[in-house]
From TrEMBL:
Descriptive protein name: Uncharacterized protein
Keywords assigned by UniProt, alphabetized: Repeat, TPR repeat
Organism this protein belongs to: Methanosarcina mazei
Ranges of the TPR repeats in the UniProt entry: 519-552, 571-604, 655-688, 739-772, 781-814
Lineage: Archaea, Methanobacteriati, Methanobacteriota, Stenosarchaea group, Methanomicrobia
Keyword 4Fe-4S: no
Membrane spanning stretches: none
Domain of life: Archaea
InterPro entries reported for this sequence: P-loop_NTPase, TPR-like_helical_dom_sf, TPR_rpt
């Protein structure tokens, strides 16, 4: 094998993003504040690109700010983490770029060095002087003569004599020494070390003045605490920078980069830092910039870039390592996405570089939960790392790789979390997950479904996550069935759907896509998709389940259970699929499947009457949508008789049948009969499901609709607003049920003359329906009709007509021409032409609407009477009161019978009749 030469001087890689950080720096350099000193601090996790950012900022100074003298110090260098050596290194860097004289500092440092290590001779190279400073060699020689031990005193008089024989400008500097040489000689080494920053600052200011344009960068600030954690006060370790160095060099701009926030610590020690420091996070790199970086580094394959960007979690260091891997792999073969799986060990090592073993063990424990609060933290530490003090929690959560959430919980940066999980003992990790699984499961054990809160939702999600990491697969399946049931019953479909989806993917891998057990769970997922309004997905799942069951007809679902797939199972899934087709307005498909299912169960002698009642109930719904109300009511009544006898009058299944009966009464214009049935349904559902269940919202919305039709707008608004609030809280934002409640709320606003409010909610309903069901679904036609009505009220007849026509075309394609909804749209178009006084156009359309309504609804229906009124108005306006009066009298008779004498439609009809009679009398 041939080893390749290491490329130490590879091409500098592109710098992307960080525009905000750069803009902050430019403003910082252009407009330094009025304080004597100021600092800009950038913080972020390991590998986030702090050093790269500093290099970019330095490049900006080189290109745009030539007058600024800058130097950079990196505390990653151990030599820079000590006060005295840091100052020597800083001195050397400054002197390479400027003519600053450090006379006093050099003398003080030499004395310090001799005091701290008297047996080590001072090196002249440590104190480089320009030619005129040759006197300093004499001082060093004088100090080096004292090499016999620490008890021999420093020759102070000789040093003073050497200084007195130097040039005037040098003597002047020493004359301004903040502390006398005699005093320095009497001090211990550690005492001199404390004042070295002040003496350094004095030299710096003497040479450059207090208004110098200087920027000093300090990188890897967290390294200053390396090897000192838990030893002494945390704030003591950088005190020499914070209190002695920066404040004593006026006019200098400091740019510091580190992992953890420091401003609060500095302000706690010195309030002035509140004004003198600005602190900014370096956020995760957005995906688009990660993509850009990889492309410009030559990673050509899109699938590889996607894998790397996703795995990086926004950390540039990971991207850099991945480019290294890409280049290495490219030398021997064509790179593939699988070459970039797993977290790189270098990332893990970088994250934990400055942490001790006890901290790493603590973070290993905390990498298991998705988040934790103080209580959970203490439980985990007491159980798995008792040597770590729980009282260090406040210090721990200050780390930049720990994020504080809104609810006072905390979480690890995802890349660090993944690396911690990957590089720890798997048995140890599994024990932590099992502990957390039991912790969260206990929060929801035997829970009353009507008492479920957001905290319980979180517990369910967390318990499942940890169950996957700690339980055997069979145990996981049992847990899913047991613990999800109350959430399903309570209507928390958004919460449980992803859990089912994830478990079914695991099950598919375990048993295969044609297994009966897989089909049974897939059916559960289809239920959830249907409940969430994702009907196309539900239909696809039901069809898949149907194929699985048909293929496995006669086989047992579980080997140890006496349950097999039979004709009944086929009927059940066919009925499920039919319900989905009902939801999307494909009534003929639904009816065909229901008839198939009913035929299967009716041929079984021992079939449960309750299941036959279920199929009758569902067929009744289909006939109702098809406008065949008489047949629908017959099937509903048959289903209700069985359900009440078998289940009792307050069962939830009884409530479903009752609600369908109420809808049929409503659509038959029997509003007085519908209202108490709706109220009975509401009472059952609130009692059984609680006041905030989605089915409660559905009933409230229906109640609101019937109240509109009965001219009770106040109650309608109350019911519909409550329904909307529940639906938006409990359902996905694009659930079709939200659109339905919005349509009913909009109708309430329309009858309350709040046309702008009505238009707004109708538009929202349209947007949801188009997103959920597509642009040509029948539900779109319903909403378009509602919007067109509002445009009519706002006298925008051209727009209204356009929407009516669009609604009519969609409805004709779904329902044919003989359906009540077709009659409704035609009636509304006729009314529009009446409003625009185009009576010749209005008459044939209203007549067509009347024929459809009479045939499908009956000649005593309120909707039939509404169209009669429109025709009566047309005849009246063209002077044919002989035709107009009988029609208006017939409509008044229907309104009085169905709505009562105080309804607004009855009053309108009475006014028209009286007006026509008066006109007819005059004409006679």
């Amino acid at each position: 094998m041939t080893l390749r030469q290491t490329d130490y001087f590879r091409k500098e890689r592109v710098f992307v993003d960080r525009e905000t950080c750069i803009e902050i720096f430019k403003n910082f350099i252009k407009n330094p504040n009025n304080q004597d000193y100021n600092a800009l601090f950038y913080y972020g996790i390991a590998g986030i690109g702090k050093s790269k950012l500093q290099h970019e900022l330095q490049s900006i100074l080189n290109s745009d700010y030539h007058e600024v003298l800058w130097v950079s110090m990196d505390l990653e260098n151990e030599y820079h983490r000590n006060v005295s050596t840091f100052l020597v290194a800083l001195r050397d860097k400054i002197q390479k770029k400027s003519n600053v004289k450090f006379y006093k500092f050099n003398l003080a440092h030499a004395l310090f060095s001799k005091k701290s290590r008297p047996e080590v001779p001072l090196k002249k190279e440590t104190y480089p002087m320009i030619k005129e400073d040759g006197f300093f060699y004499d001082i060093i020689n004088a100090l080096n003569e004292n090499i016999l031990g620490s008890f021999i005193s420093i020759p102070v008089k000789r040093i003073v004599n050497i200084i007195n024989h130097t040039p005037e400008n040098v003597r002047r500097h020493f004359g301004e020494l903040p502390i006398s040489i005699e005093k320095l000689e009497s001090m211990e080494a550690h005492e001199i070390e404390k004042i070295l920053p002040c003496i350094f600052a004095a030299d710096f200011t003497d040479s450059l003045g207090s208004n110098s344009r200087v920027c000093i960068f300090i990188d890897t600030y967290e390294a200053i605490w390396k090897d000192w954690r838990r030893i002494g006060s945390f704030s003591e370790k950088d005190k020499w920078i914070r209190k002695c160095l920066i404040p004593n060099i006026p006019g200098v701009s400091w740019v510091i980069c580190g992992r953890e926030q420091i401003k609060s610590l500095w302000v706690e020690d010195e309030k002035d830092w509140e004004m003198c420091m600005k602190e900014y996070p370096i956020e995760d790199l957005p995906e688009k910039y990660g993509e850009q970086f990889l492309k410009e580094c030559g990673v050509e394959e899109k699938d590889i870039r996607d894998v790397i960007v996703k795995a990086s979690e926004g950390v540039p260091y990971y991207l850099n390592l991945s480019v290294d891997t890409y280049e290495q792999v490219s030398r021997r073969k064509k790179p593939e996405a699988k070459d970039f799986a797993g977290t790189k060990k270098e990332v893990f090592e970088k994250f934990v570089k400055y942490l001790d073993k006890n901290e790493i063990r603590t973070l290993n424990v905390l990498s298991a939960p998705n988040s934790w609060d103080r209580n959970l933290f203490e439980l985990l530490i007491k159980k798995f790392n008792p040597t770590y003090s729980i009282y260090e929690f406040p210090d721990l959560v200050k780390y930049s790789f720990i994020k504080k959430d809104m609810d006072e919980s905390f979480s690890l940066h995802q890349l660090m979390r993944k690396s911690l999980q990957e590089y720890q003992d798997p048995i140890y990790r599994k024990d932590v997950h099992l502990f957390l699984h039991n912790y969260y499961s206990n929060k929801i054990k035997d829970i009353d479904f009507m008492s479920i809160t957001q905290e319980h939702e979180t517990a369910l999600i967390e318990a499942y996550y940890h169950a996957k990491e700690s339980l055997k697969f069979a145990e996981l399946g049992i847990w899913v069935i047991k613990y999800i049931e109350p959430f399903d019953k309570a209507g928390y479909w958004k919460t449980i759907d992803p859990i089912y989806e994830d478990f079914i993917e695991l099950l598919k891998e375990k048993v295969g896509p044609e297994n009966i057990y897989f089909g049974a769970f897939l059916r559960r997922l289809a239920f959830l998709r249907e409940d969430r309004g994702r009907y196309n997905e539900a239909i696809a799942y039901y069809q898949q389940v149907l194929k699985i069951f048909e293929k496995n007809l006669g086989k047992k679902i579980l080997e140890n259970k006496d349950v097999a797939v039979d004709d009944h199972s086929i009927a059940m899934v066919s009925n499920d699929l039919a319900n989905c087709y009902l939801d999307i307005g494909e009534y003929e498909k639904a009816l065909t499947l229901q008839q198939k299912a009913l035929k299967i169960v009716q041929n079984k002698v021992d079939e449960d009457p309750l299941y036959i009642a279920l199929l009758q109930q569902n067929m009744a719904t289909t006939y109702q949508y098809l406008g065949q109300y008489k047949r629908a009511m017959e099937l509903c009544q048959a289903a209700l008789n069985v359900r009440e006898a078998r289940l009792g009058e307050e069962d939830l299944e009884v409530a479903i049948t009752l609600e369908n009966m109420a809808i049929i009464h409503q659509q038959s214009s029997n509003y007085k009969e519908a209202l108490p049935i709706y109220q009975r349904v509401l009472n059952i559902r609130e009692k059984k499901l609680g006041p905030k269940h989605p089915l409660v919202a559905q009933t409230l919305s229906n109640l609101g609709t019937v109240c509109i039709l009965m001219d009770n707008i106040d109650d309608a608004l109350k019911y519909n607003q409550r329904a909307q609030k529940i639906a938006e809280e409990k359902l996905d934002k694009n659930h079709i049920s939200i659109a339905n409640t919005l349509n009913n709320l909009g109708a309430t606003y329309r009858y309350a003359y709040r046309y702008d409010d009505a238009l707004e909610v109708f538009q929202q309903a349209l947007q949801i329906t188009e997103h959920s069901l597509g642009p040509d679904n029948l539900n779109i036609a319903y909403t378009l009709n509602n919007i067109a009505e509002i445009y009519c009220k706002k006298k925008n007849y051209e727009k209204a007509l356009e929407l009516y026509q669009k609604a009519l075309n969609i409805a004709k394609n779904s329902l044919g021409m003989e359906h009540p909804f077709i009659g409704l749209i035609l009636n509304n178009i006729g009314r529009l032409y009446i409003d625009t006084r185009e009576f010749e156009k209005a008459h044939p359309i209203c007549q067509q609407a009347l024929n459809i309504r009479g045939k499908t609804l009956g000649t005593d229906h309120v909707d039939f009477a509404i169209t009669l009124m429109n025709l009566a108005y047309i005849y009246g306006c063209v002077g044919r009161s002989d035709y107009s009066l009988p029609l208006s009298e017939r409509s008044l008779q229907i309104f009085e019978q169905k709505l009562g004498p105080d309804h607004i439609r009855t009053k309108e009809a009475k006014l028209l009749v009286d007006t026509l009679k008066e006109l007819y009398t005059k004409d006679s």
